[in-house]
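Ticket #4471: structure export looks truncated?
Reporter: QA, pipeline team
Priority: medium

Steps to reproduce: submit the single chain below to the structure queue and open the exported record.
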Amino acid sequence: MDLGIALPIIANINIDDQLKIAIKAEQLGFNSVWASDHIIIPQEWKGRFSDIFPDPFIILTAISQNTSKITLGTSAIILPYRNPIIVAKMLSTLDNLCQGRLICTVAPGWMKEEFDILGVQYEGRIKKTEEFIKILKNLWSENPEPFNGEFYSFQNVSFQPKPLQDKLQIWMGGNADAAIERAVEYADGWQPIWFSPNELREKITYLEKYADERKVDINKEIYNISLRNRILISDSNDNGNNPDTALIGKKDEVFEKIIAYKDLRIKEVVLDFISPNIDEIIDTMEIVGKELIPEL
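Actual output as written to the record:
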């Protein structure tokens, strides 16, 4: 099992800090670094939601030019409020710039107010997500086939550059059973958030059962499961009061929680820092990178 890093999306962590964190993650042996996505935060969500969202395509491009081996990922691109043909071009270009290190997690989105501000219909976003994934895969194929969808249609097109990878993977974000079903039917992996080991075990059982019913091959060599979860190493004595769904507590407690996922069929745990202090984040990365990663 590997460990990854989610770029912090909280106040006081600026774009320069995010780049610094990504470079440090590679130096410490983390497997991946992930950029989140929201374009605009409505006033009613200010203070109740994360604060800073650099454009994921641009921040990952910058990271690609300052690293050489760490996997780069979106977690998760809100696909239905974007033009999928343009997204396909941005991702394929980025995959070339990063030498084939890219993974793209997508999601339908949940913040209706953001869709309203962007002038995009909130209803129908699930259908759009499913169709847009088909468009990405079609355009990335050697010879795009004519496409006749509910939202986009095209024929006799050329699309270059192709992704550098033979297969640029698309993962599905989301925790609900419906998200798991979409992950099986349309994606190459699944990336939920904030599950305890026991909760994740139950969800993986559902995923395997659904895949079997649909006759979809989810062999662990080709299908990935990646959990994103909050982390905070603290000297607090709140033993027993920290939620099972978060990696919060003293160092040994946090390490034990992370290791508990190792018995599951999971590719990696992506650490999502909730400290608003860049120095604390770097310190936590140093501790995990030097003490825990060698044990995994």
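Status: closed, not a bug. The export was complete when the record was re-opened. Leaving a note from the reviewer for reference: The mean pLDDT is 94.
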